[in-house]
Amino acid sequence: MGDKLEKIEWEIKPSEFRMASFTQLKPLIAEKDTPVEKGKPAIVNVQRISIPANTMVGCLNEARHALGTTISVVEYGRPSMVEEEKCISQAIFLPLESGVIKKCDLIGVIKVFFVRTDFIGKTFGLGQQSFDIVSEQKTGRITWKDNGNLIRKTLRMNDVLYGRVHIALLEPVISDENRSIRRNEIVKVENKMHFTAKEHRSRSNWIHV
C-alpha cells in the first residue's frame, strides 16, 4: 500500500473460534484530503485506530460518505494474528462519484468482534476470559448530498458497544427502475426496501457489475 513489498514465511492453519455476544463500532475518519474518481477504488489514510488483541474487524456495509463507501481496511505494518493487537491506518474506498474526501470526513465504520480462539469442542462458552475494551471520542464530519450539493456537518463521535442476538431477517432488494449498465461500471439503482409487511420505502443502493 504505497511502500515496498515484503514477504515473510508464516505457518497458516485452520482455527476454530467463538464470538462474544457484543460488538464495538468505531468511526473511520480521513486523515487528509484525498481526491477520488468514480468507480476507481482509492486508498484513504485514516486516523489510526488501535484494536485490542483477540479481535476480528469488519466494515459496516452502508455508504457513510456522500461520495461512496468503504469496502475494507488496511493494517499498519506486518499483518497481525487474531490474538495480537492491531492498528488500522488506511481504508479502501469505493467512490460512487468523483470528488474530494476532506480531512476529518467520516468515510465508514468498522465493527470490532471480540473472539476466543480456543478449541470450542471442549467448551461452549467464553469462560472467564476478559477483553480489553477501549472507547474513544473523536471529532469528524458526516456528509450527504442535498440537491446535488455536498453538505458537511461536524459532530463528536463516540465508539458504540452493543449486544448481539443470533436472530436475523433476510430482506430482498428489488429494483424500482430500468437501468442500462456496463461491465465494471458503478451505478446507483433506485430500489424498494421491504421493511415490514405493511411498509415499503424507496432507497438508493449501489451495485458493482
Work out the radius of gyration: 19 Å
How many structurally independent domains? 2
Total beta-strand segments: 14
Strand content: over 45%
Give the number of helices. 0
What is the CA-CA span between the terminal residues?
25 Å
Q: Round the mean pLDDT to the nearest integer and report it.
A: 83
Main sheet overview:
4 strands, antiparallel
Structural class: mainly beta
Read across the widest sheet, the strand sequence of neighbours is 4-8-1-11
What is the element string, with H for helices and E for strands?
EEEEEEEEEEEEEE
Tell me, what's the shape? globular
Unreliable parts = 197-209
Please outline what is shown here.
The protein is mainly β and 209 residues long.
Write the layout of secondary structure elements.
Layout: E1 18-29, E2 34-36, E3 42-51, E4 55-59, E5 68-75, E6 86-95, E7 99-101, E8 106-116, E9 137-146, E10 149-158, E11 160-163, E12 173-175, E13 186-196, E14 199-208
Antiparallel strand pairs: 1-8, 1-11, 2-7, 3-6, 4-8, 5-6, 9-10, 12-13, 13-14
